[in-house]
């Protein structure tokens, strides 16, 4: 059941599911595009999440009650629509699995380092949300054998390109930033560039596979 909840004076939260499902990010992406097309003149921004869509609206043009009325037929139609076909684009992203926490994570999960790399790189992950930092894509879900809580003490600086895991998700830090996830490796790709179109190659609903590479390949691609 969809819930509409005020989120401050200028935002409305659409709760579209109680838990993450395989096709929900794709469906939320399709809904966001329809709302942007139909009601874009009323909105400032749309922020998709794993199970929700946050609408920031222009108080000079609408309020949450009038916006909810305009949303009702769009949400009714969305509920009756199947998931978009195609399953999102597939990105095969190279990773040099030499992260600072690799050995400690393997030990905590009862695996060898090689076993951890094999298990993590065997998964296909869905982009469920983009946030925290520009281009930071939350990918899920991890194999249950790799599920760990976040670090008790976050790092003040995680290097750009770091591949990490926490709880049931994995991600790559697009920029150097603080972070509390466990670091497994390094990606040579630049996953956010403000002057590029689009700035982030990953979009909501896309799929990601990680391809293990050696240090020489990582450094070659990093400097390409």
UniProtKB/TrEMBL annotation:
Classification via PANTHER family: 5-OXOPROLINASE SUBUNIT B
Source organism per UniProt: Aquipseudomonas alcaligenes (strain ATCC 14909 / DSM 50342 / CCUG 1425 / JCM 20561 / NBRC 14159 / NCIMB 9945 / NCTC 10367 / 1577) (Pseudomonas alcaligenes)
Gene Ontology MF terms: ATP binding; hydrolase activity
Every Carboxyltransferase domain range: 2-202
Pfam families assigned to the protein according to its UniProt record, in alphabetical order: CT_C_D
Annotated protein name in UniProt: Carboxyltransferase domain-containing protein
Keyword set includes Electron transport: no
Protein keywords: ATP-binding, Hydrolase, Nucleotide-binding
